[in-house]
Amino acid sequence: MPKQKQLQVSAIENGTVIDHIPAASLFYVIAILGLDQIPNQTTFGANLDSHKFGKKAIIKVADKFFERDEINKISLVAPHAKLNIIRGYEVVEKRDVTIPDEVVGIVKCFNPKCVTNNEGVLTRFRVEDKEDLALKCHYCEKITSRDELQMV
Amino acid sequence: MKNKSLVSISDYSRDEILKVLELAALFEARPNRPLLRDKVVASLFFEPSTRTRLSFETAINRLGARVIGFTDSSSSSTTKGETLKDTIKMVSNYADLIVMRHPLEGSARYASEQARVPVINAGDGANQHPTQTLLDLYSIKKTQGTLDNLNIYMVGDLKYGRTVHSLLMALSHFNPTFYFVAPKELAMPREYKIFLKERGIPFYEQFEMGKLDQADILYMTRVQKERFSDPMEYERVKNAYVLRNAMLAGTRDKLRVLHPLPRVNEIHVDVDSNPKAYYFEQAENGVYTRMGIIAAIMGLEAELTNN
Ligand SMILES: [Zn+2]
After folding, report:
1. Which DSSP state fits A57?
2. Which residue in chain A has the smallest CA separation from B127?
3. pTM of the model as a whole
4. Which of B224, B262, B285, B258 is closest to B49 using CA atoms?
C-alpha cells in the first residue's frame, strides 16, 4: 500500500473513511449523508490523485458507522466508493456500495411536468437498470438516466 | 379491486381487466342501475375535458350516485394557491370516490396516496388515461368476441400518443401481433419495443399502412403538425396516415376502425358510413366501461352478478 494512502485512512481512531469518491461528487456525498448536519469530527480531502479516476475525494468521519441502506444512497454519485471501517486506528472492514432497488428523496425527476417538481412531493424511483442507471419515477413513470441526474 | 385506486393500466392484472369488461357488458345490457344511491362521487377536473367529464358524470348518474366537484381549476380553490394534497385531503372527507383529471404527470398516483378513498385517474398530463384504455379493450372484445390472438394495427403518432402506449401494455396480456405504422419521427419509442421483446410479443414497423387484409383492429391516432421538427416533413408524410374508405376493400369482415377522438382529418369522412367504422360506438362504450370500473372499485360485483 502506498504510504500516502495509508496515512489517509489511518488518521482516525474510530469511525468511517469513505474513499474513491469522484472529486466532482464530494459535495453531493456530504449532502446525501447529511454530514453538514452532524456533530462528529469530519475531514474532507478533495482533488487527491487517484489511479482510477484522475481526481478523487475522501471523507473521514470520526465515531460514525453507517447503516448499509444509508451508505448505499451515495452509490448514485459515487458508484465505486469504498468504505473503510476503523476501530482502534485499524481498518477492520472494507465495504463497497451497491445501487439500491429504490431511491427515495435524493434525485430530482427530470420531467418538468412531474408532480414531484411542482407540488413539493418527495421523489421516489425504482431502479430499472443498475449498469446504465435508469430510474423510473414512481409518479410520472418517466425514466431519469445518468445524463439527466440531478440531486434534489 | 375493491377500494383500489386505478391510476395506471398496469395496476390491473389480466383477470382484473376481464372482470371490468364483464361488468361493463352487464351495464350495457341494462344501463340504469342505481346501486350507488347513497354515495357521493367527486369529479375533480383541474383542466377541462368535456368529453371525458361527461362520460364519467353520465356513468355516475346512471349508477344513482351524486356528483360534486369542479370542471376546471379556475373555478376551484387551486387558483388561490391551495396544494393538490390539501384539495384531495379535503375532498376525501366528503366523497366515497374521486375521479380526477390533472395536467401534472404523476398527480393521480400522488392523489391516491393522499386520499382516504379510491382515486380513478381520468388523465394525468401526457402520462396515463387508463379508463380510455379499458374502453378501447371493451370495444375490441365486443367487436372481435375476444381479446386473444389479434392483429392490431396502430397508425399515426405512436411516439407521443399515450393511448397507444397504454393499449399496447394492456393487450400484452392477450398474445397480440402488432403492426406499427408511423413516420420515422413519430415511431413507437424504444422502451415499448423492449417491453414487447421481453415478453416475446411480435411486432412489425412500417411507414405506410399497405395491405390491411390481415388486420383485426385498425387503431388510428392524430398526426399533429406541431410534433414535427421540420414542417416540410409533415407535408411530405401526412397523407400516408389518412384512412380512406377505398383502403378498407378486401379487409376482414370483423375488422373495426377505432380512434380515441376527437379526430382531425386522419379518418376521411367517407369511412364514417362503412360498417367497419367503430369510433362513435367506441365513445359510447366509454360510459358502460366507466360504470364497470366504478362498480368494481365500489365492490358492487356480487350484487351485479347475482341479478
Ligand atoms: Zn416524475
Report:
1. E
2. A140
3. 0.87
4. B262
Q: Tell me the nearest-neighbour CA distance from A144 into chain B, angstroms.
A: 13
**Exactly one of B53, B129, B142, B256 is catalytic; which is it?**
B129
Residue-wise pLDDT tens for chain A (152 aa)? 454 555 454 578 999 999 999 998 899 999 989 999 999 989 988 888 887 778 899 999 999 999 988 888 899 889 899 999 999 999 999 999 999 999 998 899 999 999 999 999 999 999 998 888 899 999 999 999 988 888 88
The fold of A102-148 is: SH3 type barrels. (2.30.30)
ipTM of model over 0.85: yes
Catalytic residue check, B51: yes
Separation of first and last alpha carbons in chain B: 20
Tell the residue number behind the cell numbers 439527466, with chain if given: A148
* B256 among known catalytic residues: no
Q: Range(s) for CATH 3.40.50.1370 in chain B?
A: 9-128+286-306, 131-283
Class of domain B131-283: alpha beta
Cβ-based burial of B246 (10 A; exposed 0-12, middle 13-18, buried ≥19): exposed
CA distances from B242 to A140, B178, B185, B227, B264 (A): 32, 19, 17, 16, 10
To the nearest whole Å, the CA of B29 is away from the closest chain A CA by: 37
B82 touches chain A (CB under 8 A): no
Distance A109 CA to ligand 1 centre (A): 5
CATH 3.30.420.40 fits A15-96, yes or no: no
Q: What CATH code is assigned to B9-128+286-306?
A: 3.40.50.1370
Mutation for B interface: A104, A138, A139, A145, most B CBs within 10 A: A139
B112 touches chain A (CB under 8 A): no
